[in-house]
Amino acid sequence: MVSLVALLWGSTAKDRGQSISTISAADKTKKLKKGQGLVDAEFYKRVQRLLKIVVPNYSCKESKYIAILSLLLVLRTQMSIWLADVNGKIVKSIVERDFNKFVYRIFNLMLFAIPSSAVNSGLDYFQKLLSVSFRERITEYFHERYLEKMFYYKICNLDSRISNPDQRLT
């Protein structure tokens, strides 16, 4: 096994029987580095089209969910900063060996857990609510689009390229 790897390690594509011309110049330019996605103007256009479907206007429930999520994220950020400060003060009271300050700050940390859990639960709740709402909007959009002008009938009965169109729409 090791000898096979050693032989292949020093071999060229021609030695292995592969054609060097199989990789075109276009493929070489399109190759991306590991972890790098293709984000260009077309990507932004597609995202904008999707956003117009899932958030049709500023007064819809989805935009309100996004606003609430944004406020909760700002609140959680502020709470994280405050938590770091409290943890630093707890460590300081340990280093100073002041038991009364330590107990007081641990009590403050316990009180911090109540609003922190409420904010985190709210974030999770509104994120799931927004997700369900986005799915509803997209499903309604595609159902309206493919059920008009007998598109669904044509796909099911006249076109065999798409298998199970009803399941794909769902």
What's the shape? elongated
Strand content: under 5%
| Number of alpha- plus pi-helical segments | 7
Mean pLDDT, rounded to whole units? 80
Helix content: over 70%
Total strands: the figure is 0
- The whole-angstrom Rg is 29 Å
The arrangement of helices and strands along the chain is HHHHHHH
Q: Biggest β-sheet: count, sense, barrel?
A: none
Q: Please give the alpha-carbon distance between the first and last residues.
A: 49 Å
Structural class call reads: mainly alpha
Low-confidence stretches: 1-23
Report on the structure:
The chain has helices at 2-10, 25-30, 41-54, 61-96, 99-147, 151-158, 165-169. 2% of the residues are buried. The protein is an all-alpha fold and 170 residues long. The chain has 7 helices and no strands.
Task: Describe the secondary structure blueprint for this structure.
Elements: H1 2-10, H2 25-30, H3 41-54, H4 61-96, H5 99-147, H6 151-158, H7 165-169
List keywords for this structure.
single chain, 170 residues, mainly alpha, disordered N terminus
Short description:
This protein is 75% helix and 0% strand. It is mainly alpha-helical and 170 residues long. It starts with a helix and ends with a helix.
